[in-house]
């Protein structure tokens, strides 16, 4: 059975989003301070039950190998509380599926830990997620400027110049 148009569009957004995720991480001015005890950047693919898709995205992320000289370690979870990571704080989170029931919990985690959380799904940046994608004539990164300030994450100026900005008033 093939994908319908909505599923195909969502899959395309997720594929684009995972490509931008490494750019977001590389643009984090403080990424060097977000490594684990082995000096690795741990990134989380947060899924909502579709582990097969999350594994596919993890394979794509692992092709990156390192970001700004730091080796990358990719882990999967479906736990929006991220309690599995009590010994260290991941450098960033990528949402591989929509999180309608617990998006606020994921937003609160990102804000509390000053970490990038990227969602490729429409409306999530406007709901408070720090980063996403803007799909128009040209695909660009999209940044929630209010979340960026509140979460105390610092992105490099060149990245902010090319990104579409969402300012929550």
Give a brief outline of the structure.
With 169 residues, the protein is an alpha/beta fold. The protein has helices spanning 5-27, 51-62, 103-113, 124-127, 145-150, 157-162; strands spanning 41-46, 66-67, 70-77, 92-95, 116-118, 131-135, 139-144, 164-166.
Characteristic key phrases:
169 residues; alpha/beta; Rossmann fold; five-stranded mixed beta sheet; three-stranded mixed beta sheet; globular
How would you explain this protein's 3D organization?
Helix content is about 35%, strand content about 20%. The protein has about 170 residues and is α/β, with parallel strands linked by helices. It has one domain (about 5-165): Rossmann fold. The chain starts with a helix and ends with a strand.
Class by SSE composition? alpha/beta
**Rounded to an integer, what's the Rg over CA atoms?**
15 Å
Q: How is the CATH topology named?
A: Rossmann fold
Total number of β-strand segments?
8
Instruction: Give the CA-based shape.
Output: globular
Oligomeric composition of the shown chains: single chain
Q: CATH first level: which class?
A: Alpha Beta
Number of helices: 6
Biggest sheet strand order reads 2-3-1-4-5
Question: How do the helices and strands line up, and which of them pair or pack?
Answer:
Elements (H helix, E strand, L loop, with lengths): L4 H23 L13 E6 L4 H12 L3 E2 L2 E8 L14 E4 L7 H11 L2 E3 L5 H4 L3 E5 L3 E6 H6 L6 H6 L1 E3 L3
